[in-house]
Amino acid sequence: MNIKPIKTEEDYQAALSRLEEIFDAPDGTPESDELDILGLLVDEYEKEHYPIDSPDPIEAIKIRMEELNMRQVDLIPVIGGKSRVSEILNRKRRLTIQMIRRLKERLNLSAELLIRDYELLK
C-alpha cells in the first residue's frame, strides 16, 4: 500500500484508477483498508476542487416533491391555492416566511435552504 496525499489532477486520476482496481476488495484485507483511505482522500479532493452547489429553494422543493411522489396539488395546504402553488413553482412569486415554515415541516427541508435568494421569471 503506497498512499500519498492527492495534490494534483494527475494524483486524483491515479487514485480513481486505483479505487477502481480494488473496489471489490474483501473486508479485512490490506486492499480494503487502502480502499477506505483512498476513498477519504478522493472525497476531500473532490470537495475542494469539484464542489456541488445546493439547489435553489424552488429546485429543492421540486426535487423533494419528486422524492415523495407529490404533485402540485399536494402543496395547496402548505402554500395556498392552486394558482399560488403554480406561481411559486414557476418562479413568478417569492416564498413567504409562512410558506417557508410550512414547507420546512411538510417537506423536511432546512429553513436555511428555503430562505436562499433565487431569480424570479418575468
UniProtKB/TrEMBL annotation:
One GO process term, biological-process aspect: regulation of DNA-templated transcription
InterPro entries linked to this entry: Antitox_HigA, Lambda_DNA-bd_dom_sf
Organism name: Salinivirga cyanobacteriivorans
The protein's name: Antitoxin HigA
Single annotated GO MF: core promoter sequence-specific DNA binding
Cited PANTHER family: ANTITOXIN HIGA
Top-level taxon in the UniProt lineage: Bacteria
